[in-house]
Structures are given as structure tokens and as C-alpha cells.
Amino acid sequence: MVYFQISPVGFDCGFDKNNCQRYPDFCKECVKEKLQKLGLNLDYNLKFTIIDSEEKRIEMFKDLIWQKFLDVLNIKHILLTAKDSGLLILDYPISGSGVDSGLLTGFIQANITFSESSTTSNGTLNNEESYPFYEFHYEKFNILLKNREFIRICLVLDHKASDSLKNLVTEFLNEYESRYLDKLERFINTRKLEFKDTIEFIIDTFNIKLVFPMTLTHTFLPDTLEAIKKNPIQKAIIDFAKQLLTSKQFFFIINLIDEVQKIVHIDSNIILYEIYQLLEQKYIFPTTIEIAEDKILRFHESEATRLANNELISPIIANDDAINDLKEKAKYMSEEEVKKAITTYIKKAETAEKALILKEALREYEKALFLATGFDFKDEIGRISFLVLELDKRIKEMDLDYAINAAEKAEKRKDYINAINYYKQGLKILKEVQEFNGNESRIKKLKKKIVNLQKHL
To answer: Which among 100, 279, 308, 331 is placed 20 to 30 Å from 189, CA to CA?
Structure first.
């Protein structure tokens, strides 16, 4: 049996407090009765808080998100080591703190030895706890340590850890050992296993994506834009994000909060709450500098090869008279004229995107990229390259959706030949974008689908 503890969980009882005779004295008993009918075990660790209005619920959520943000901003480096041997399991730097993990692990081992013998004054230890927290100073940083049965976590922090961060560390250790127990036991015996596949769990637990580089989706449907316009804070967020993206491929939430706050003059936690809503709706989404830079580097390498062979970056405009005219005009254009032309092409592309004429948008972006590459405008090359990559990805996703839907409809009609054909089209698209998107599991599923359908022929 696996036992799950879910915290925090909200529950709407469905009654107006003004019309309920049991409010507020019997709310706890009432809610417990209803939850127990759903099969939930509420005997232990029950924390009960009444949030008697939507406004209070939102305020509580704002404070919760803000504290998560402050906690992750405080973390500079995360180390996981084996508790007994001190061997490094995982080294995950979040910012360029310059911490030498080898020196730090040695410092940790020495301080824990002193703390456990109560002979040092720069560590704290609560002997009443089975797995206490240790807190030290190291260079200019604060160090937070905690052991579990097999592992030790070390957080390198700018400031002392908050209570919420300490609670999160405790929850993380419990779940990490539970999730990866077999792997940890094998590591202790062999000392040869990799734990990089557990980084995603660390990222999710400590909300590290909140400090990742961010970018905007290119898919703002008309209804979405109308909803954002009705929310002046969200509109300001999107507008400033677009401004930040004109000079760089990414922006950071902390910078976005600063820019918006200069104009709207409201509390940072309110701005972050609205940013979080846009993150949840995937209008703002996180990436990593390494992934995005790798995309752009690969794009530049591919572009250089194509230009050297007098090829264009996509077959869409390979025989376009407009591009041939542009190639001739570019020979006599000044830098100022080129920059104006690039701006014009980008605006045309954005207009086409909004109208969902995606291949036309790609054509205009590629014209702009052709000019930027020819005149070696590095900032424009990087920015437009990223736009082209994202739009190309979006076109492929739409083509993939169409192929899968068509395949499923054909399969229901028992038209197995067409179903296989459409699944193969989808498989081809997935393989094309596998390098950046990690579609291995989807590829396997489609291959299995095709094999099963071929049995009917």
C-alpha cells in the first residue's frame, strides 16, 4: 500500500456562511465528515484553516507564491551527498555563485563532526529531532544542511533559511528517499550510479523554474488577448515582457516585476500572482539558457551551411520571386535601410501569426533573417532565429495534431491503411523535433500503434 499525504488542499463546502447554522463553530467537524466520505484519512497531521471568502483565498495564495519566490531566489546551489560516506550524489548550481563543491563537502563533514560533539559555536543542532537542521556560515553564504536515512542535502543560501524553506527541505528528503530508494541503495553498494534523471524532481519541489529564463508564447488567440486587456496588470506584464525580448532572447521574473512596478506602483506579490497565472496558462513559459543557446547555436550552424550553399532556411520560400528580388536589392542597401526592412518583415510576420496564417508568417520571418544574416546583425540574428524556431515548432505541432486526429478517426472507421499512413506522418514529425523536445516516449507509442494496426492487414 502507498500512503499519500496531500498538502495544502482546499475544499469548498458549498454553503454560504450567512445561511449556515453550523458556521463557524462546527466547520472542522463538518468538513472532516465530508472528506472522510470521499475515503480520505484525516486522523493525523490535519491543519484546518477557514478561508471564508474568495478575496481571502486569493490573498493567501499571493502570499504563498511570494514566499516560494523568495525561497528560490535565496537558493544558490544544491548538493546531495551520501550521509555516511559524504560522496557526492548530485551537484546542482542554480546561479553562478562560484562555490567549489569539493571544498564545500569537506567543510560540511568537518562542521557536522564538530556540531554533533557540541564543540563548535557556529552550528546549531536540536538534539530532540531525529534528523536535525544544521546551519553554518561558509565564505559569504549561509549553509543549510539536513540528513535523512541515506542522504544529506546542502543548500547554499544568500540569507538564513525561512521556516517555509525548512519545511520544504524536510518534505523533499522524505519523498526523494521514498522515490529513489532502490537507486540510493545500489549507489551505496556500487558508488557508480548517475542521479541526473532526478534533477527534474528537485526543480519541481523547490519551484526553481521561477528563476529560469522566461519567454512568451507566440499563440495569443483573440479571446486570450481580450481577457488580458481587461486585466491591466497582466497587460502591463505582457507589454514589458515583449519589450525585454526585443533586446534579449529571455527575461527573468525578477526583472519583469521591477519593470512593471515602476509603472503600476503596486506590491510585488500582486504582480507575481498575475505572472503566475500567465505561467499556469502557458502564456509565459520557462526554458533554460543552455537549451535556448543550444537551439540558437545549432540554428546558426545550419544557417551558415545553407547560406554557403546558396540555400534558404526553408523550402517554403525557395522559389519565391520576392526573395530573389530581396537578394538583388540587398546588394545595394545601406545598414539603415536593412534595419528598417527587417522591422517591416517582422511586423508582417507578427500580423500573419495573429491571423493564424503561420506559413506566411514564417516566410516573412525568414526574409528578415536572410537580411540580418547577410549584414551580420548578431542581436537580430539571435532574436529572429528564436522566433523562427518557435514558429516552426508551432507549425509542426499543428501538423502533428492533424495527423494524429486523422489517424484516430481512420482507425475508428477500421480504415487501417489510412490510419497507418497518418500515424507515420505523425511519427516523421516527432522524429524531426525529437532533438529539442524529448519525444522519445511519444515516438515509442506511435511505433507500437503502427505495429498493432499492421496486424489487421
So the answer is: 100
pLDDT band at 312 (very low <50, low <70, confident <90, very high): very low
Residues 362-379: pLDDT tens digits? 888 888 888 887 777 777
**295's grid cell:** 537551439
pTM: 0.57
Residues 6+ apart with CB under 8 A from 96: none
Mean residue pLDDT of the chain comes to 77
β partners of residue 147? 152
pLDDT the model gives residue 316: 43
pLDDT for res 437: 47
Query: For the residues 423-444, what does the mean pLDDT come to?
Result: 70
- Distance in angstroms (rounded) separating the CA atoms of residues 96 and 86: 23
| CA separation for the pair 349, 363 (Å, rounded) | 8
Flag the least confident range among 24-33, 39-48, 155-164, 392-401.
Answer: 39-48
User: Across 44-53, 169-178, 185-194, 260-269, which has the greatest mean pLDDT?
Assistant: 169-178
| Cis status of the peptide bond prior to 8, with omega within 30 of 0 | yes
Q: How would you write the chain as a 3-class SS string?
A: CCCCCCCCCCCCCCCCHHHCCCCCCCHHHHHHHHHHHCCCCCCCCCCCCCCCCHHHHHHHHHHHHHHHHHHHHHEEEEEEEECCCCCEEEEEECCCCCCCHHHHHHHHHHHHHHHHCCCCCCCCCCCCCCCCEEEEEECCEEEEEEECCCEEEEEEECCCCCHHHHHHHHHHHHHHHHHCHHHHHHHHHHCCCCCHHHHHHHHHHCCHHHHCCEEECCCCCHHHHHHHHCCHHHHHHHHHHHHHHHHCCCECHHHHHHHHHHHHCCCHHHHHHHHHHHHHCCCEEECCHHHHHHHHHHHHHHHHHHHHCCCCCCHHHCCCHHHHHHHHHHCCCCHHHHHHHHHHHHHHHHHHHHCCCHHHHHHHHHHHHHHHHHCCCHHHHHHHHHHHHHHHHHHHHHHHHHHHHHHHHHHHCCCHHHHHHHHHHHHHHHHHHHHHHCCHHHHHHHHHHHHHHHCCC
Closest residue by Cα to residue 266 from 257, 275, 277, 255: 257
pLDDT at 202: 92
Cis peptide before 315 (omega within 30 of 0): no
Spell out the domain ranges in the chain.
1-52, 69-210, 212-286
What's the distance, CA 447 to chain centroid?
Answer: 28
Domain 69-210, architecture per CATH: 2-Layer Sandwich (3.30)
Is the model's pLDDT at 126 over the cut of 80?
Answer: no
